[in-house]
Amino acid sequence: MPQFFHRNSGQSRSHGSPGNGRLENGYLIDYSLANAKYFSFSSYYLLGNGYINSRLYHTLVEAYKSCEESCPNIKFKYMECSSHKGGKQLIHRTHRNGLSVDFMVPKKKANQQSTFYDHLGIWHYFLEFDSNGKLSLNKEVEIDFETMGRHILALDDAARNHGLKIKKVLLQIDLKDNFYRSKSGQEVKKRGIYFAQYLSPQVDKFHDDHYHIDFSLR
């Protein structure tokens, strides 16, 4: 498992697009940070899906550092990124150039963070939420849209500091109205951060438990 021995150094280069690209000198995201952690041991160590462009690496680290103040006591989970050299992945059509990351939706129960379902590993992708963001397995658990928005704002700020920008966010279409009703969601909309307006039914179905973000060079 080369992930145990990988050392980040130098600068990365992303070639092509998220759907048809490759990654040169990929950086391996930390398995855990002070307030965030990679969601799956097998995805990280066995499949090697934790690599990103060096600029995006520094963006994520800075964003989560910022979230220590904007989202105190919240524990985040980041999900699949790219392979060491980009290219095709087992379950993704994109994630090929090191500039895409999936982020687990933060969840709450009775206005307190709920992390019970955060430990499912790759099975988390199969959780289902209704159009109001309530978990089908337990209606008392729902998406924390306010925290989600604060996280995206932190990513946007950090991306600008590292020569990147948020190109596109994928979130299940029926969830967008609830997201934009949150205070932080309104600020995301005000900044003009683009959310996909249409997703094919197959793609839409799998973007309720997480939000996918494509970044690009400024």
Structure, described:
There is one protein chain. This protein is α+β, with helices and mostly antiparallel strands and 218 residues long. The protein has one domain: Muramoyl-pentapeptide Carboxypeptidase, domain 2. Helices cover 27% and strands 24% of the residues. It has six helices and 13 strands. The chain is globular. The model has no long low-confidence stretch (mean pLDDT 96).
Number of helical elements: 6
Give the topology string: H per helix, E per strand.
Answer: EEEEHEHEEEEEEHEHHHE
- In one word, what is the shape? globular
CATH topology heading: Muramoyl-pentapeptide Carboxypeptidase, domain 2
Structural class: alpha+beta
CATH class: Alpha Beta
Strand order of the largest sheet: 9-8-11-10
Helix content: 25-40%
Look at the structure and give the mean pLDDT.
96
Would you count the extended β strands for me?
13
CATH architecture: 2-Layer Sandwich
Oligomer: single chain
Radius of gyration: 16 Å
User: How many independent structural domains?
Assistant: 1
Residue share in β-strands? 15-25%
Query: Could you give a short account of the major beta sheet?
Result: 4 strands, antiparallel
Distance between the termini: 34 Å
**Spans of at least 5 consecutive residues with low confidence:** none
